[in-house]
Specification:
The chain has about 325 residues and is an alpha/beta fold. It is built from 10 helices and 11 strands. It has an 8-stranded mixed sheet with strand order 1-2-4-3-5-6-7-8, with helices on both faces. Helix 1 packs antiparallel against helix 2, helix 2 crosses helix 3 and helix 9 packs antiparallel against helix 10. The longest helix is centred in the middle third of the chain and has 16 residues.
Length: about 325
Amino acid sequence: MNRPYASRALSCGIKFQCLLWVLCALGPAVAETLLDPSPPKTAASLTGWVHDNSATAGGVRIETRVFIPANHKVLRGLIVSSPGFGGDGRGFATQDRTKGIADNWGFAALGVKFPGSRIKYIYADQGSGRALLKSIRAHAASSGHLELGNAPLLLFGFSHGGAFSYSFTLWRPSRVIAFACNKSGYATTAATTAAARAVPGMFFFGENDEPSVRPRMTQILLANRSLGALWSLAVDWGVPHAPGTANNLIFPFFDEAIKLRVPQGVAPISGPVSLTELSELSGYLGENMSFGSSSVAVASYETFGGDKGKASWFPSAVIANKWHECVSRHRGCPD
């Protein structure tokens, strides 16, 4: 008997002796495998490059943390999360769920903090947008993933962070795959361009939110859906002014947007990727005025019987059905 296995038998006690003798009979390699199995690959075990930096533009300072999954030599895009006022969203980059979706998509993940910038940072065209792009380019240089500097973006955030995600889309629509504005009473009501309205987007309000949030989210949605914006509105049941369960709809929505808008086999190595434009007519619609009802109407654009200019728009039946599940159940959006 080999010495390592003899010592194990002596130390483990009588009740394990038979098992160890069987393992030894199978041979050292088999015994080692059964005694010390490799853990299954999970999001928590994913490795990658994590780095912090900061940048300033237009008097607005940004601090960011990036996670770049080690499994991808070339990145396809970047998902950016921005927190509410005074918050620090940098931890998003290294959360287990974030690492898992970043690895699945072949994206990097970026968490944001806007220290001491007051409300100005929600307006991307006043400096915060340039600060974000400056920070991203610095991460690209530091990591050796130069394609990150041109990567198309998925933008989402809570409250002021949602307002920033929306205003960045208005400012640089060609750079954005999709966006989500989660419960903001301060999102800009500025006029939009056709290019911005062509970027798929979602707006949320909480059932028990601050008084200004639902009116502002609804106002933006209705003013732009009538112009053909590829946007939707959702209620987060039972939730006050908090992130709530919105991410359970946002992440599947982003997953679908990547499939439909980011060309396969194309990476932002030599320059920005030309994102695929979606047709309003190819999407699906949902009735906004009947939240909480099991009979919330959802149908293809062609067959929808309600007011199409006031209905929420979705890129596919998958997301339309997920939205229906979220807004009609009175219990928040299921994972």
